[in-house]
Amino acid sequence: MILLKTAKDIMVKGVNVVAFSSDDSIREVIAKLAQTGFSGGPVVKGGKVVGVISESDIITLADNSGKDDLEGFVGSAAVRKKASDVMSKKVVTVGPDADVGEIADKMSGKKVNRVIVVDSKGALLGLIARDDIVEAAVSEL
Fold first, then answer.
1. Who's near 113: CB < 8 A, 6+ residues apart?
2. What is the CATH number of domain 2-138?
3. How far apart are CA 105 and CA 109, in angstroms?
4. pLDDT score recorded for residue 107
5. How far apart are CA 7 and CA 103, in angstroms?
6. Closest listed residue to residue 128, CA positions, set 48, 41, 63
7. pLDDT 10s digits, 44-72
8. Which long-range contacts does 18-24 make (Cβ < 8 Å, 24+ apart)?
9. How many CA atoms lie within 13 A of 99 on its CB side?
10. Measured in Å, how far apart are the chain's first and last C-alpha atoms?
11. Which residues pair with 48 in a beta bridge?
């Protein structure tokens, strides 16, 4: 039954999570997102998750850059900003033993596409995206 599964059962594990350093430039973030096909991921500093950065954050930055086109944005000072300058600092996290129902409720209530799985010290263990919840449900059909 899906509700009996926990975060550790369905999460993308740490080594497979696309994570960013708080010091990564936006140019580096864009390149990593493009290479991996992920839409976002956790930002880590000193071994702890300190934020989340997504395509939405990049689009907002581009929109606010004052450039009229993508080429102008990519060549602008905006892409030299750091991930920590652009990330959302409101990270939605769960522990490894959180059940799938709790995770789905949290994602829905907070209107987020992903939750970060952390240990008791805030270190990154994994990531759960909406499609991971759906896949867990499908596996029970």
1. 39, 40, 54, 107, 129, 130
2. 3.10.580.10
3. 6
4. 94
5. 8
6. 41
7. 999 899 999 999 898 888 877 776 666 66
8. 19/43, 19/44, 19/124, 20/44, 20/53, 20/83, 20/87, 21/45, 21/83, 22/50, 22/51, 22/82, 22/83, 22/84, 22/87, 23/82, 23/83, 23/84, 24/82, 24/83
9. 6
10. 9
11. 45
Tokens of 18: 């696309």
Give the full edge-to-edge strand order of the sheet including 93-94.
Answer: 12-13, 124-129, 114-118, 93-94
Classify 131 as helix, strand or coil: helix
Question: What is the token pair recorded at 94?
Answer: 């769960």
Confidence band for 141, pLDDT divided at 50, 70 and 90: low
Task: Return the domain boundaries, the chain.
Answer: 2-138
Q: Which two structure tokens, joined as six digits, stand for 29?
A: 């973030």
C-beta separation of 128 from 12 below 8 A: yes
Question: Exposure pattern of 41-75 as b/e (b: 16+ CB <10 Å)?
Answer: bbbbeeeebbbbbbeebbeebbeebeeeeeeebee
pTM: 0.85
